[in-house]
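User: These chains co-purify. Model them together.
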Amino acid sequence: MPAKYGPGPWSIFVPLFGIAATVMVLVWTLKFRGGLAFRSRNQELIFNVHPVLMVIGFIVSSGHAIVVFKILPARRKAQKAVHLLLHLVALLAGVVGVYVAFKFKRESGLKDMSSLHSWFGMATICLYGLQWLLAFLFFWFPGAAMYTRARIVPWHVFAGLVIFLMAICAAELGILEKLTFLERAKAVRIFGEEALLVNFMGIAILFFAIAVGLCLFL
Amino acid sequence: MPAKYGPGPWSIFVPLFGIAATVMVLVWTLKFRGGLAFRSRNQELIFNVHPVLMVIGFIVSSGHAIVVFKILPARRKAQKAVHLLLHLVALLAGVVGVYVAFKFKRESGLKDMSSLHSWFGMATICLYGLQWLLAFLFFWFPGAAMYTRARIVPWHVFAGLVIFLMAICAAELGILEKLTFLERAKAVRIFGEEALLVNFMGIAILFFAIAVGLCLFL
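Assistant: Joint model of the two components:
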């Protein structure tokens, strides 16, 4: 069965804003923040892995996974496989991203799970994993009866959108939190080049989410 | 014409989480932060008006305005009037809320419009005003032809939901920003009573948004 709907005029904006956010998070961490490292005496390099995994691995992947049925010209089975795989990539990136955040906090002697960013993020990752597992069991293997699937689909879509929007909100919260810390520590100048880049990354992520919505809506 | 759909089983959660957020923002500003004032030597009292207007006036009002068609047992015309009025209350509260934020910043000698919270908030208010004005002209007075209205409705709903979700995101960003400032200034203890109250207010606002979504979805 081919895709139910062909790609609409807004489809192009999903990869476009996805690329914009990807480039911005890389320029930020590599050019402004000194690069990435899993092990380093400079804990900031460990931290940098967190936004890279979350923006590229989690947000951009899961956004594309959501619109696969609308923009990938392929058979239904292939679309489902790509949907499942992209969400798995996002989930794994998200889990490693959370691990890196804890590692950074522990090695820096900071308290963790205290801010709304961490609460939103942790809830998002847990719900994301649960949603993926349930969807795998019901829609892929072993798979439920057609009648059950049809009843579950609207809930799968609704829960998926809520989780995606929570992920977007968590990302914006993380961006604001980190930038506030850096500005307060005088490591970044308010309205400086880096501050604007980071805020525009937040705007790109918002536009990415709106593009995903437009793709589903059209 | 009566309401197209009667209230679903989730309708009760919209006022419930609305009340929860309202109580929390009042307890926070009145009990923990010293109260409210439009004019005071203590600029923090001026600031406090901002979250109160934004949470109760803007978020809670606009969320209820969105679900009016689903939960208010009345004729279509009456539902529309309440929808319009609640959104107007939200818009006015939002505009005054923004004014108060600028007043606080100016009187405290702080830079404004530098954070993602202010960017999201300003964009939300501007789009909200535009959406209200266009909807008033097309759906109320003078009103467009039925054919045009039918074509516009899906865009009105989509734009309205995007703006509502931006408002939710702006609120969460504001909560995190203010709490981070207070914690850094040692005015609030991390994991202390007040910090937990403020974060739970953020969770109540998230649940309020999910309840609005469930109301529309069911």
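Chain A touches chain B at residues 111, 114-117, 119-120, 154, 158, 161-162, 165-166, 168-169, 172-173, 175-177, 179-181, 183-184, 190-191, 195, 199, 202-203, 206, 210, 213-214, 217 (CB under 8 Å).
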